Amino acid sequence: MAVTIAKEKWTSKVGEMVLDADSSVKVGGESTLPFLQFEGDIPNRPVLALEVWDLEPVDWPEILKAPFAGVLADPVAWAKKNVEYGADVVALRLMSAHPDFKNASPEDCAATAKAVADAINVPMIITGCGVEEKDAEVLEKVGEALTGKNCLIGCATEKNYKTVTATAMVNGHSVIASSPLDINLSKQLNILMTEMNLPANRIAIDPLVGALGYGIEYAYSIMERARIGALMGDKMLAMPVICFVGQEAWKAKEAKSTDDESPEWGAQERRSILWEVLTTTTFAQAGGSIFVLRHPESVKQVKVHLDKMMESNAY
Amino acid sequence: MALTGLDIFKQLPKTNCKECGQPTCLAFAMQLASGKTSLDKCPHVSDSAKEVLDSASAPPIALVKIGKGEKELQLGNETVLFRHDKRFEHPTGIAVTVNDTDSDIAGKVQSINKLVFDRVGQIHKVNLVAVKNTSGDTARFAEAVKTVQDNADFALLLISEDAAAMEKALEVAGANAPLICSANAANFDVMLNLAKKYDSPLVVKGTDLNELAALVEKSGYKKLILDSGAREVNKVLADQTQIRRQALKKFRPFGYPTIAFADNADPIQAVVDAGVYIAKYAGIVVLNTSDPADVLPLITLRLNIYTDPQKPIAVESKLYEIGNPGPDAPVFVTTNFSLTYFCVQGDVEAGRFPAYIMPVDTDGISVLTGWAAGKFTPEKITEMLNSCGIADKVSHRKVIIPGGVAVLSGKLKEMSGWDVLVGPRESAGIPSFIKQRWGA
How many C-beta atoms surround the C-beta of residue B168 within 10 A? Predict the structure, then answer.
């Protein structure tokens, strides 16, 4: 018997964001739920970023440090390595600015960002150290130093969005808008930023995701709701979503615990990579567009999966 | 579409006999419409009315049971497309495959039996052992089924499209209601009769959605699991979405749980595909791996996706001891939202310093939400400090509160008489906090 394919008639779509200076890398633009090509268009594949720190990370597990042996203390070499590993985007984290670490000056951070940007030919995400006041100062200088490069900078929060938004507007960047696991807070921040005249297609939503086993379901449902909202015409939820998966997945006990500590969990290498990969691919099903990862093998595996998911399933 | 109370009332005897426990037939009809009672409470309803009402009030996706007794697995009764709309009811059953060509079948089953994980104080495990007739040999399949049945802690899924092989296997395992996999257009009548004979659930496999619907219609059987035949992850996603959408619209042929096979030739991609099937509607996912490094992430994903979004998971509000704390050990206060508690617990453990954790009962909500909602207050913390026995266990009077609620410190000190130390905002800062502020 013939089955009539059930298609939703969505009235709107996710906004399309350009991630580089010459418009060759874009995300968003979907007019349906994730990967349902039988129903609408999925013009852009989600992109995968690998992290670079401007400060050698001390508490990363060995499995995570190994692929970057020799470059962990050199952000430029590390960034180039990420490109070799197939990252679509390089995500520079200016951790040295943190008052608990080097408390590096905004000028020093800007110089590092410039050096990294000059050394690579892929789009860049640049985030501060997570201390909101300091990030505002740092991003102001970084934004200036990278004028016209159209980077994605952040994270803008309720506390520092004004400075970050102004910097982005003056210097032609896009902004990551972070708000903790609440669709209304997220919407509110997007409204405040667009009221400053930042175009909506220069905002990426960061819902502050949790890893597999550590609250993944909260962000998963918020992202599903935001996507449905976007498809039904809510412009303040129609921004592409960025997921900082690497920092969360590699914090999980299941990723950090060694073979000796948890033999009943199987080999750490396979388990930890799968922790990062499955967190990512699950968020891809909920509507994530930009994923910031840490391990090159995860990038490789997620890419293979996304290539398959981007093949048409039209009836 | 669901019937209204009045639609149901028209089908009832209208005698107001009260035997259903309701004062009138109309009251009973209203209760039925809201799903608060069941039709079998009415002893006088006519058979024809029963048929009309049963089919209209049946859940959009039938409940199907596999196995018997403690090994029974229930699937179906799903009512939504998105977990945030209500919740997903029955977690995806995870099946691990054993081939009848494997050399040490009993040993493999033992390793599957060990796929049991303790998380958030609950036990999570796989649900089925799939026995696959890879050899194509009838006797060998039956023998493998016997070995698996004798050793497995779980119900069975029998995979063979050869009706003769299935018949022999069911002579061994048919009494325990295994899932028969599968009936297709070529073997349909024989497989269906076997399922009926052993009163067991049956997988119906089409070459596409159209053939699947036709086979289901033809079967007249109710204990079904659906397989659209798709095997590539992008197409399985489309078919799973269609089956769930159409079932919710009460397209009856698709009103059953589904099965998906994670048999991607690349072993890592197979796990990734299985993750998609767990998130997107599969009733059962069949794995070829029994490596805990593959299964643990999938079981964890299932636990997360099938959590009821309307019910925060709480841990019991009582004093917890981490390591072997003595009278000078630090005392951490947090809330009893399980994620919050387990973050704090994990990070206190990571600090390798024995301590007490005191999760205050906030109805399972987090620190900042609890504070904003007036459920994480100096009063409540004081009450717990006084009642949980911590005062007898430690010789000091210092309590550490989460950095996010530093604002509570003054009032808490005043009310409890304890010194209040403001801890880090994020639990990840606990190890360095202990070193800097407590060890010295």
Answer: 18
Cβ A220–B234 below 8 Å, yes or no? no
B280 contacts in A (CB within 8 Å)? 285
Phi, psi at A57, each rounded to 5°: -70, 135
Question: Which residues of chain B have a CB within 8 Å of the CB of A253?
Answer: 346
Token pair listed for B299: 């079981």
User: Hey, which residues 115-144 in chain B have their CB within 8 Å of chain A?
Assistant: 117, 119
Of the candidates A3, A254, A277, which has its C-beta nearest B272's C-beta? A277
User: CA separation (Å) from B191 to A234, A289, B210, B223, B402?
Assistant: 51, 45, 20, 13, 61
Residue with tokens 């906090």: B433
Assess contact for A4 and A280: CB atoms under 8 A.
no
pTM of this structure = 0.87
Per-residue pLDDT tens over the stretch B387-437: 999 999 999 999 999 999 999 999 999 999 999 999 998 888 898 888 888
Q: Residue B213's closest chain A neighbor by CA?
A: A1
Q: Nearest-CA distance from A226 to chain B in Å?
A: 12
**CA pair distance B271, B378, nearest whole angstrom:** 47
CATH architecture of A19-309: Alpha-Beta Barrel (3.20)
Q: Give the span between the Cα atoms of B218 and B284, in whole angstroms.
A: 23
- Which residues of chain A are within 8 Å of residue B84 when distances are taken between CB atoms? 221, 224-225
The full length of chain B comes to 440
Q: At what angle do helices B292-305 and A268-286 cross, to 10 degrees?
A: 30
B293 part of contact set with chain A, CB < 8 Å = yes
Average pLDDT by consecutive 10-residue portion of chain A (315 residues)? Answer: 91 97 94 98 97 94 96 98 98 95 96 98 96 96 96 96 97 95 91 97 95 92 96 96 97 91 94 98 98 98 98 96
Residue A271: list chain B partners with CB under 8 A.
292-293, 296-297
Contact B268 A273 (CB under 8 A): yes
Alpha-carbon B158 to chain mean position = 22
Yes or no: say if B183 and B227 are a contact pair by the CB < 8 Å rule. no
- Per the document, the length of chain A is 315
CB pair distance less than 8 Å for B253 and A277:
no
Q: Which long-range contacts (CB under 8 A, 24 or more apart) does A73-76 make?
A: A75/A112, A75/A115, A75/A116, A76/A115, A76/A116, A76/A119
**Closest C-alpha among B228, B222, B223, B255 to residue B240:** B228
Residues of A in contact with B249 (CB under 8 A): 6
Torsion of CA B28, B34, B36, B40, to 10 degrees: 50
CB burial of residue A202 (10 Å; 0-12, 13-18, 19+): buried
ipTM of the complex: 0.97
Residue A182 Cα, gap to closest chain B Cα (Å):
11
Q: List beta partners, residue B93.
A: B284
Q: What is the pLDDT of residues B213-270, one digit of tens each?
A: 999 999 999 999 999 999 999 999 999 999 999 999 989 999 999 999 999 999 999 9
> Which member of A216, A266, A309 has the closest CB to residue B296?
A266
A70/A68 Cα distance (integer angstroms): 6
